[in-house]
Structure formats: C-alpha cells, structure tokens
Amino acid sequence: MSLKVAIIGRPNVGKSTLFNRLVGKKLALVDDQPGVTRDRRYGRARLGHIHFDIIDTAGLEDVFDDSVEGKMRQQSEIAFEECDLAFFLIDARAGLTPLDNHFADWLRKRKKPVYVIANKHEGRGQDAGLYEAYGLGLGDVAPISAEHGQGMELLIDIMLPHWEDYRDKQRKARREGDDAVIDDDFEDDEEIIDDDAFPSFEIEYDEDDDGEEEVVQKDNSKIQLAIVGRPNVGKSTLLNHLLGENRVMTGPQAGLTRDSIAVDWSYEGRPIRLVDTAGMRRKKKIDDRVEKLSVTDTLRVIRYAQVVVIMLDATNTLDKQDLTIARMVIDEGRALIIAVNKWDAVKDKPGVMQALRDKLDTSFAQAKGIPILTFSALTGRGTDTLMPTVLDIYDIWSRRIPTSQLNRWLAVVAERHLPPVISGRRIRLRYMTQAKSRPPSFFINSSKAAELPESYTRYLINALREDFDMPGVPIRIYVRSSDNPYGNKKKKR
C-alpha cells in the first residue's frame, strides 16, 4: 500500500490549496466560500524526492446527522482512517477557534501521527495564531503558506522519517516477494523512474491483405470514463454502485457534488479512471460563483475524457440541457453512451424508449447508433450492461482501418453513388487514408475538394459507419486537393 497523508481541518483553512500545491496541479476547486470541498479527493504528491498519496477532505463539522455537513464529516473520517499520517490545518490569520480545539481533542484520542500546520502564515503578522496552535497539545507547529509555496521544506522534515520507514518496508517486501505489501507506484529515491517517459501501449505488427505492414497499438492505458448530466440524475449513486462503496456523497438534494472526483478502478482486468462530475444546469440559471467553477471543471473533464456517459432521469428524459451536453461531447469527438436512470419508475417503457431514440436520430446524425442503456443505479438493476458497453464503444472509437482496405471501399462506394459534376467535370476521389483514431478521422484526396458537397461527405460517413460497423461514435472526414506541381510554371518555348 502507498504512503497516504490526509489533510484535515475545519472549513476554509486552505486544505484544497495545499492539496493543489502538493500534487502540482489545480485539481481541487478553491474559493473563499467555506465548504466548497465535500467529497474526499486523492492525488499523487511530491515533496523533494518523497512521493506519496495525498487526500483532500471536506471541512470538519461537529455534526452527526444525515445533513450535508454530517455526510462531509463522514467522508473526512473515512480519509483519516485510511491515512498513515495527517496534516491538521489551522488558519494562522484567524487563530484558534472552538472548532479547532474540539477536533484537536478528537485527534489526540486517535493512535495515528498528526502534525499541526499553520496555514496562511505569510509574515510576522500571523505569529499570534501560530503561537496559539502550540496550545493544542499536538506537538510542534509548522508555519506555511500553501498559496505562495512558503514553508514546504518544513513539510519535508515532517514527512522524511515516515518516508524512510515506508521505503525500508518496500525494499524488504520486494526482496521477499510479499505482494500484499508491495506498492506498484513506489518510487525509490535512489532510482526514480519517470513512468511518463514510456509509451502506454505495446507495438505489434500485422499484415493486411496486400502484405502491407500495419502497426497495431495494443492499448494498456486507463480508459478515462466520465459520468455527466444534469443535477440529481444519479451520477454519484452510479459511481458508488460500480465501486461497491460509499465513495462520494449522495442524497435527494440537488448539487451535492461540487468538483469532479476521479477514482482509479479496474473492470475485468481493464484499468478504468472513473470521474464523477457536478451537475450541469442551463447557463442562465447559474448565478452562484462556486457552481460556475463546478461547471467549468465538468467541461474540462469532458475534454479529457475518452468515453462519456450522459445520465438522464427516466421521469424527465432528454430535455434541452441534455441535448446541449450530448452535442458538446460529440463536438469534442468523444465516445458517448446515453444512460437512463430510475427506469423502474417508468410505466410506458416502450413509448419512452421510442421517443428517446427518435430524438437522438434527428439530433445527432453525425453519431448514429449511440448506445442507450436503462437501469436503476440505486438498486443496481440493469447496471451490469454498462461496462461491457463502455469497452465495446471504446474499442470502436479507437479502431484503425488499413489504408488498402479503405481505398478498395472508396472505389466501391464512389461507384455506387457517383460524386457530383462541377463545371462539366466530375469530382474524382483519388485516395483515402485514416489520419488518426479517437475519434476515427480520415483524409480523402480529391479533385476540386472545396466544391465537394457536404451531403456527399455525409453519405461517405454513413457508409463508413455501416460497412465497418462503427455505430455511436463521431466520424470525421477531411477532403483536400493535391496541388499540380506544374500548374503555376510557365511553358517552355
């Protein structure tokens, strides 16, 4: 198991700012408004040569019921139980509060290393709050400024003994072959390997029908799977069901999830990165600053996802906002799955399904055949079809077609439906190749490419989708002309 550090403390002391500083990325939403973070978030952190997992948590509240604050406290307690040591953050500017003292008493009763970190200590003006923190009875206090990166060397001094113990255990486990203790992400400071320097796929070679050598990428990387949709359609409930644990907060209140939570997971040996996102309402209905940040974060997730599952509420399927989100996913070139949740509440199931399919066919002609799944995330009924569908559409989205096969196909479809005649001469489609996958994108070399009608391009896309069995993914075709190398040269006399 990896060395884990949890950042805990009352709301608005800078936990997410410190988390972002340690992971080196702006992963967690940060705002002056307290209580922005609600679920626990994991990241890979680095201090000098020390690598460890860091856990950002919601602000600790003295609440034990089923309210939002009570659920936030439960998430923080789970993070504390998982960690090897904890950073207890206080606000050096504000000084100690009764809530700080209350949770310091709670932490002293736990048999786990806890270190007090006085954040927002940018100068001597915050020394009063720093000295107060010694009264908590949790040992020395490290003054830092997470926003400005000051005092990080003090965190290295805190981490170093724990890192050395962890490193010694890893070395011993590797010598003895103890798989239960070995951490695959362990990076020894004597031999640090940058995993990003190596490709995430294996290269194999195969021959197509004409004996041409084709490169086949055997992908071993994580599938980036995002769950998006309007508020309160069951996104977090679905993620918890897939993981089999209470990983993120759920409840009848809309907008419980504020920032995107990514979880590394494995399905039948295939690595998956599941991302739960905040609900997206219509732009004109958003007036809260934090909600605007949440929507921006969700848009970022869509851009970096590979497969996107749009959750719909079966009692209110496919309204204008759902179509807007789906169109955004298609425009980004991502593989799309429509998941209709709360299907057990629908009475006229055939009628609702037919209306949904008709709407999709008319709205998304560029990605016909989008998979539509129905289930109940709360009970789990029907959810067993989701992940096989994700793997299928990911493989279609990643498909590559040999050039020779494409050109034979191009000759057949062009003969079946001839390109139009422009200025007395028929447009010729000379050559076709696949430029890239994810999404499948093709180049066609043609005479008078600028004059080829969009309707003919749509004909080619539909034929590609049907002949090569590529339903539900966006396909792009780019038509270009090759310049005549002698066209602009003067004739010799």
Strand and helix map with partners:
Layout: E1 4-8, H1 15-23, E2 41-47, E3 50-56, H2 68-82, E4 85-91, H3 98-108, E5 114-119, H4 127-133, E6 141-143, H5 152-176, E7 201-207, E8 213-219, E9 223-229, H6 235-243, E10 261-267, E11 270-276, H7 289-304, E12 307-313, H8 320-331, E13 335-341, H9 349-363, E14 372-374, H10 386-397, H11 403-416, E15 421-422, E16 425-426, E17 429-436, E18 441-446, H12 454-467, E19 476-480
Parallel strand pairs: 1-3, 1-4, 4-5, 5-6, 9-11, 9-12, 12-13, 13-14, 18-19
Antiparallel strand pairs: 2-3, 7-8, 10-11, 15-16, 17-18
What's the CATH H-level homologous superfamily of the largest domain? P-loop containing nucleotide triphosphate hydrolases
Enumerate how many helices there are, as a single number.
Answer: 12
3D shape: elongated
Strand order of the main beta sheet, please?
2-3-1-4-5-6
CATH class of the largest domain: Alpha Beta
Query: Helicity range of the residues?
Result: 25-40%
Count of individual beta strands: 19
End-to-end distance: 81 Å
Structural class: alpha/beta
Taking all residues together, what is the mean pLDDT? Answer: 81
Q: Indicate the CATH architecture of the largest domain.
A: 3-Layer(aba) Sandwich
